[in-house]
Each structure stands twice: as structure tokens, then as C-alpha cells.
Write a structure and sequence with these properties.
InterPro entries: Tscrpt_reg_HTH_GntR, WH-like_DNA-bd_sf, WH_DNA-bd_sf
GO molecular function, one term: DNA binding
Helix content: 55-70%
Pfam families: GntR
Number of helices: 5
Protein name: GntR family transcriptional regulator
Strand order of the largest sheet: 1-3-2
Largest sheet: 3 strands, antiparallel
Radius of gyration: 19 Å
Mean pLDDT: 91
Keywords: DNA-binding, Transcription, Transcription regulation
CATH superfamily of the largest domain: Winged helix-like DNA-binding domain superfamily/Winged helix DNA-binding domain
């Protein structure tokens, strides 16, 4: 549940943003959880839709949420910063493996062998 304090010195869009980030980090909003529409949340909070839209834009820019067209707005599958970094490393490794001519099976085998050998501690 999001609560906006109209007396706060923190702008309403920032209050929304901070609370949604906290809910994602705590797991209260898990990956792929659907968020209310901008209009619905604005109505519930008695705010202008542009205020909620700004919070959503900031969160999308940060990779916390993603808009899936007409399907709605969702918590990004990799909203967790550690997971995002791991995803980035995996993408880099996959690009290198392809450039070296490795197939997915060989690339995964090498990665598994590396973990099993205890080379990454």
C-alpha cells in the first residue's frame, strides 16, 4: 500500500517512487507483479495522473518496472540490482562465447565446470 503525505517536503512522485522501490526490494512486490494503472493509482491516492506517471517513468528508467504496452506495468523480472549485474555478466559471457564459436551447450558446460572446480570463490 502506498501512502502519500501531502504535508511532506518530498514531492508526491518521489514518495511513490521510494515506496515502490522499497516494496520491490523487500519482496512485497515480486518480479512480474502487475502494478495498478497510472489512472487507478492516481485516483486511489487522489493525485494528478501526471504525478504517478512521473514516478512510473523514473522507475522504468531505473529498471525497476517495465511497461508492456496494453498489458500494463509490471515489476521488472530483474529489478534486483544484484540480479541485473549478473544478467549483464551473463550477456557479456554469451556474446564472447558466440564470438569464439561456442554453442550454448559448450558455453554452459564451461561455466558449470568452472563453478564445480571451485575456481570462483
Amino acid at each position: 500500500m502506498i501512502v502519500v503525505d501531502p504535508r511532506s517536503a518530498v514531492p508526491p512522485f518521489e514518495q511513490i517512487r521510494v515506496q515502490l522501490v522499497a516494496q520491490v526490494q523487500s519482496g512485497e512486490l515480486p518480479p512480474d507483479a502487475r502494478l495498478p494503472t497510472v489512472r487507478k493509482l492516481a485516483s486511489d491516492l487522489r493525485l494528478a495522473p501526471n504525478t504517478v506517471a512521473r514516478a512510473y517513468r523514473e522507475l522504468e528508467r531505473a529498471g525497476v518496472i517495465e511497461t508492456r504496452g496494453r498489458h500494463g506495468t509490471f515489476v521488472a523480472p530483474h529489478a534486483d540490482p544484484v540480479r541485473r549485474q549478473a544478467q549483464s555478466a551473463a550477456e557479456s559471457y554469451a556474446r564472447q562465447a558466440v564470438a569464439l564459436g561456442l554453442g550454448v551447450d559448450d558455453a554452459v558446460r564451461l561455466l558449470r565446470d568452472t563453478f564445480e572446480a571451485g575456481a570462483v570463490r
